[in-house]
Amino acid sequence: MHLGLREGRRRAAVLAAGSALVMTMLAGWTAGGAASAPAPGPAATAVTTAATTATASTAAGPAGPSVLFGPEDLPAIRAKTESGPGLVWWTEIERRADLALTKVVAQTCERDLRYDIADLAFAYLVTEDVTYARKAREIHLGVGTAPQWHPDVTAAPCAKPIWGDYGWRWPQMLAQTALSWDWISGSGVLSAADEEVIRQDLLRGGRLIHDSQVAPPYGGAEAIRNIINYRLRNVAGLGIVGHVLAGTDEGDAWAAYAWDDLFGDTGRDVTQYLHQMISPDGVYKEGQAYYQDSFRLLIPFFVAEQRATGRDAFADPVVAGVFESEALMIMPDGDPPTVDTGWKPAAYSGGFGHWVAGQYPEKPWLTWAWQRQEDPVLGRPTPAGDQWYALAFYRPDLEVTAAPPAGSPTRVLEDAGYGMLRGGWGPDDLYVFQNAEHVPSLSAHEQPDQTAFSLFAKGAYLAVDPGDGRNCPGSEHYWVRSADAHNLVLVDGAGPRQVSSYVEATDPARFDRVVDTAGLDYLRTRMTYGASGTDITRRTMTVGDEYVVVLDDLAADEPHAYDWRLHFGDLATGTLTQDGAGSAVWRTRNEAGEAVELVVDITAGAPLTVAEATGPMNYDPGSCRRHAYLRAQTQAEDTGYTAVLYPRTDAEAAPSIGHVTEGAARATTIALPGRDDVVVTAPGDRPVRLAGVRTDATHAVVSGIDAPRSYLVEQGRQLFAGRTPLLLANRPVDLVLSFDDGVITGRVDVARTTDLTLGTGAGRVTEVRLDGEPVPFTATTGRVELTVDHGGDLAMTVAQP
Prior knowledge:
Layout: H1 8-32, H2 49-53, H3 74-80, H4 84-101, H5 110-127, H6 130-142, H7 163-184, H8 192-214, H9 228-244, H10 249-263, H11 273-277, H12 288-309, H13 317-329, H14 346-349, H15 353-356, H16 365-372, H17 387-393, E1 411-413, E2 418-422, E3 431-435, E4 453-457, E5 460-463, H18 474-481, E6 489-491, E7 509-515, E8 520-528, E9 535-543, E10 547-555, E11 560-570, E12 575-578, E13 583-589, E14 595-604, E15 609-617, E16 625-636, E17 639-649, E18 656-662, E19 665-672, E20 675-681, E21 688-690, E22 693-695, E23 699-703, E24 710-721, E25 724-740, E26 743-749, E27 754-759, E28 764-770, E29 773-774, E30 777-780, E31 783-788, E32 792-799
Antiparallel strand pairs: 1-2, 2-3, 3-4, 4-5, 6-11, 7-8, 8-9, 9-10, 10-17, 11-16, 12-13, 13-14, 14-17, 15-16, 18-19, 19-20, 20-23, 21-22, 22-24, 23-24, 24-25, 25-26, 25-27, 26-32, 27-31, 28-29, 28-32, 30-31
């Protein structure tokens, strides 16, 4: 027995309250006649007299649970409820189960009952207290004649649902009903007649799901459930019910159908539907909120399938990738990026690492990601109501080895088009999320956000994706989902078009340059706006893991109005000041209460007008608040923007940012304690000298004019910092180099064989490798000469004097 977890007097009070309520009802029936039962809804079960009068003593059910775990697993599950996160989860299950003991089934909405039933059954497994099992039995036998929850039925106290909510929630409710039967099957409270009532209830409910799945997509009110996340939830729920009904023709067919629809072909419009909803590198296309939404049912189905058939969904590369990508995308505060339909906090948008860690013991970072998602209310986050799965799947023995992913913290998921530039895996590290989506996706949860970025630093979400707008009224809902609400460039008031197809990606964006070095990480994104034909090249880089530079080039065949957007956080917790000329400061506080500010500097190649505005946001679920944003507007045919985004706390020195121009060339200078950095944009047709830099490149960035730490060149043959040559080439090259303790790393890209002379600081190069292969070179102190015939990653070893 496991009754030590509860307080006896509280149990007695709960049972007494329930008994008193039942007696009150009986007295009412005696005085006023039998209460009229609500009309059964489409899923109602006609409970037979034999079933309702059968006694527990005649039960002869299975020996115990089998679908997600077996009787042999119960001691370990009970042990997990004694301490740590397991105690947090169990306390919530127990609270809900005790409340369910007091409810009168005939007066409780079906929706509530099908949630209560899983709490009661799991509480029985943990405590071995048959009181819970008996109440679960009562619900199983009475749920069919309780007030029905269905869009075609109005039955108090149920609030009549819309088809969208019903189609989303019904498979979860039915799966919980099925698992409750599995969990109390060995309790001795069910007779054969009881089990037949339960079986018929599940068959009727399962037919509703199956019929909707084989219907044409969007083929009527019910068929909304056979597309996008609805389809995944319904198929998974149907599969769980099928495994509980194993041995029946329909149950076996449903379990097989669920697997085939996810990983094979059921004759529907799209085969391998799970692969349609997830990119090859594991990103769930609708956003992290809907990753959580779908996988809270998919994971239990995968476990049930594995136990029943040996087929291992967790070995599928796409399935493994979706859990991996969650860890790679995680923001420094443990929350997911709010791209597409993504919300903070993680309790609403992910946190499945502890559900699947046992499937991937060689990947401790899955548990690490979950540990980073700690929630002050729930302990470790678990989607509300799913604590049974958390207790069943959690492996506390794997927590002790939890560590972040090995290797560089900067990661790029090129299939999905997501890039994460990081300074590290810590909570205060710099983090930039760059979007270059280009995969087909037929989902209303998609957003037109190709080329957008977001920024987290110093423990605060500073440049944000405001959410999906569902909590905001009227047109504000759609504004939050539009291109206007993202950190990108609008052309004539229009952003990229939204993807809405299984086979075609509208206005696809792609990374065509990815560089990861110690001192300068760099992503280059290209896209063509379908509405105007304008080409954009966006360069996003982190310099010294300290600040961010965004360089945008826009090219068109005729003049356009360009509108560069930058969205900040909640106005209730922050303030924006700006001078109308491109300088601004967003000031807020991080989760630790420290003051944090984002210093912003924006320039353009044409006259610029900068204004602030406010708009709705809802990246925290259930709220609609106001946020501030900047609009940097200009009009031209071909032009460009330079933006410097510098996060800092009050304890850190503020940068001094200035500007220098020479004809069409312009430079932004960033003066910091001990060094000066420069960002140059120029036509590239002749050398220019600006702010201590001489170059003929179209773009150049130098961190440390006097003692270079890193630098970038695009389409240049020369770069000097002061009098020090950093690059001399006989043809234009793209080059990034970073200096770090005797090692120089970077990337070079050339159109054909090119001779290079590179500045190497005070040391002498002793080895050069291109994509890991040795390259002949000639070195003197401070300089190395080499010839390259293709692009690739450079690595040079330097002996210091």
